[in-house]
Amino acid sequence: MSTPIKSASSLLLNARLVSPKLLSPVENKICYTSTPKRVPRQSLNFSHDFQAHNPVKNPIQIKVTQENLAEDSLIIDSPHKSELLTYGLNKYDLLYILGKGSFGTVIKGNYHGKIVAVKLIKSKSGFVNESNALNLRHENIITVFDIIVSRKYSLVMMEYHEDSKNLQSVIDDASAVLDRKTVVRFSKDVASGLKHCHENGVLHLDIKPKNILLCDNKVCKICDFGNSVKASKATEMCTFQGTVPYTAPEILRGKLPSTKSDIYSLGILIWQMIYRKSPYEFSNSEVIIYKVVKFNFRPPLDSKDEVLARLCCLCWDESSNKRPSAAQICDLLNGVVFNEK
Q: Name one GO biological process term (predicted).
């Protein structure tokens, strides 16, 4: 989940000082009705996010009710669904919180007899981009089962994994193994998930370690489609934003995003797995935007791994047309794995 440090308008105003070609931010409008309904929406959140925030697993066990199939999960079906949509989490004192962020809180729940991860979001925060993932079914993408929208709160029912962790927490854990073979495997997982997204007309636009979930079977899955957009609607006037260090330069210049914008983010992510540190030493968002846009600045590379270093360079090429597709990256990484056998 993104954690905005500034409003989009403020950050893009500074970005426009770097490049006068940047478009003026245009806020999307959406009307919610009092009756819960499923509504698609295009909206993105710009943030600068370096710090690792591991998923919070904090069961608050104050009372146990017979309604729960598991003592640490909340049944989402009525009347709980209506109460959640109206009051949020205020009425509940037995919850298993999986994570928190600017977009909302993720809890462990039970929906139609199935244990799920439930993202509860204040509707005004503009989340419904998650609906872009509703039809995506792939082993490297967290499945979104259902989305329910109301005037105050909205619910996103997602695939749940008991012992999962985000990739950022793995990068930050000195005891976690991130050797070359593991980096290649994780990179291939993300590229494969992106390939499926792009083949189905979805741009994620916020690929970063915190939005990659490492599941108990050691498979990486792309999650959090709160910043996603349908490729067919990327021509509409709206503010395309993401997390600054991972955002492609064409977006920073105010141009429309494409599948290659996700590839740029993937290149930064691969670099971060190799070097296990923040991609930029300076943490100021405006400085990063200035250097990336004006000087084509990228994270430093050495000869640590020639093949992966070359892949990073291809992914974050200044020209989006020169960046490989997700399918091409999968083919390249399959070759690397084959050669290591």
A: negative regulation of metaphase/anaphase transition of meiotic cell cycle
Question: How many angstroms separate the CA atoms of 40 and 27, rounded?
Answer: 15
φ, ψ of residue 37 to 5 degrees: the values are: -155, 165
**pTM (2 d.p.):** 0.75
Q: Is 119 annotated as a binding residue?
A: yes
Q: Return the CATH fold of 165-340.
A: Transferase(Phosphotransferase); domain 1 (1.10.510)
CB 123 within 8 A of CB 94: no
How is the chain split into domains, by residue range? 30-158, 165-340
Give the pLDDT confidence score for residue 76 in this predicted structure: 53
Architecture of domain 30-158: 2-Layer Sandwich (3.30)
> Within the chain, which residues score under 50 in pLDDT?
1-46, 50-71, 73-74, 77-79, 86-94, 125, 338, 341
Which residues form the catalytic set? Answer: 206
Check residue 205 and give left, alpha or beta (phi > 0: left; psi -120 to 50: alpha). Answer: left
Count Cβ atoms below 10 Å from residue 287 Cβ, excluding itself. 14
Q: Quote the tokens at residue 113.
A: 């007899």
Residue of 305, 303, 295, 300 whose CA lies nearest to 339: 305
Give me the pLDDT at residue 159, please. Answer: 93
